[in-house]
Design a protein that fits this description.
13% strand, single chain, 9 helices, alpha/beta
Amino acid sequence: ADDNSFVRRDYWLDLLPELGRRRVRWFTETDISLGEDDRMLDLLADSGCAEVLIGLESPVAEGLNGVETRSNWKLKHLGRYRDGLRNIQEHGIRVNGCFVLGLDGQGPDIFDHVREFVREADLFDVQITVLTPFPGTPLYARLRDENRLTHPGAWERCTLFDVNFEPRGMSVIELERGFRSLALDLYSTESTKRRRSRFNARWRSRRREKEAAS
């Protein structure tokens, strides 16, 4: 599933208080616009929402340009990424920020860009995957027509972690090695503890501020 739960905000404004009364802890997927809706964030926090997954895809414009087939919505919102993520997490809701490596427009410097963005944004969780053309998708058809598929029809390589195409901005080897190095860094015990401790510190600070103001 790759749903965007809060497209119908009016529906959720009615549902969230009901979830809060049931005292459940839950997780869902959404987009960065949630970070601009304080009313929704307050309701989410009170409802028991523990974490949201947001497909950021790329922290630089070159990777986002053209990533959507009908619009450049994420590219248009790139400048709001950091503030939106900060606001969500300051409401006590963890963010799992997701990035795709190997997008057209990304060069070998993308790994450092993602590493820096994750550190600056203090994401509680992070997910990185390799761009993967699945058979039957528009992406697959485009890369096939461009003669960039390295393993046509090989479903066993559609893992989101194996490279099955020729990237435009780097070599296959650069993508594989850069991805592995970034994963080892982001998922290390040290990096994980740092992100989560900073989230907890910010949330406690925000909570003290709210209690002092009430």
